[in-house]
Amino acid sequence: MDEISRVTDSAGHLAIEPRGPRWAHTALCVLDAVFSINAHYERHTVPTCYRYVTWAGLSDPLVSSAHLPVLDEQPLGDFVTHVQIEGEVAFSAQVLQNKQRTRANLTAPLKVEAARRYAEILVANGIETLANANALLVDSNRLKLVEQAMASVAGHGSGARLSYLWMLLGDDGLIKPDRMVLGWLRVVLQRTVTSSDAIRLLTEAAARLGCKPWELDHAIWTHQRNP
Description:
By secondary structure, this protein is an all-alpha fold. It has 12 helices and 2 strands; from the N terminus they run αβααβααααααααα. The chain has helices at residues 3-11, 26-35, 41-56, 76-86, 88-96, 111-124, 130-137, 140-150, 160-169, 179-189, 195-209, 213-225; strands at 22-23, 62-63. It has a two-stranded antiparallel ribbon with strand order 1-2. α11 (195-209) packs across α12.
């Protein structure tokens, strides 16, 4: 059995699902990625994102991939400016109405600080829109530098939060071969797999499975995160 067949066979046991509606603004992807860690997603994270939508006057916050980009996509720099002007404490309490911290410790930084720092790093690297983000994700040299900067942000942990952010920002044809995806492939193929190998293998496997590369990537990531 060739390697593509082995990947396809193993992927057949995963929960591969069509991608549903996705955030149409980079700020919402950042907020989702940061505020979903150690929090109930539907009860806390989604309402937090929608409070920002209402406060910032964003239209079409959640749309299908076919309707992206939205005409009035908010530049990520606007989010950074909003937090800087309001201040992190006020932004958490009054705008987001969510004062969660990056750790279960009263002295830990607020999650909104981590969101602001992620956004600042992205903006400093020319990432204002979803299209900018997808260009970054296929540029391994730039991506490495951005990830190194983001590793210093409070609550970064093992990197799962950042991987989730890339999943939120990525388009349906994109594969982001993070450690979870590479780990899964290593087990399936019984060898070390490079990022370029992973992209080729998963793209071809997705074609055989009749799904989008993102859907296969996400199924693997979800399986590895919740074995």
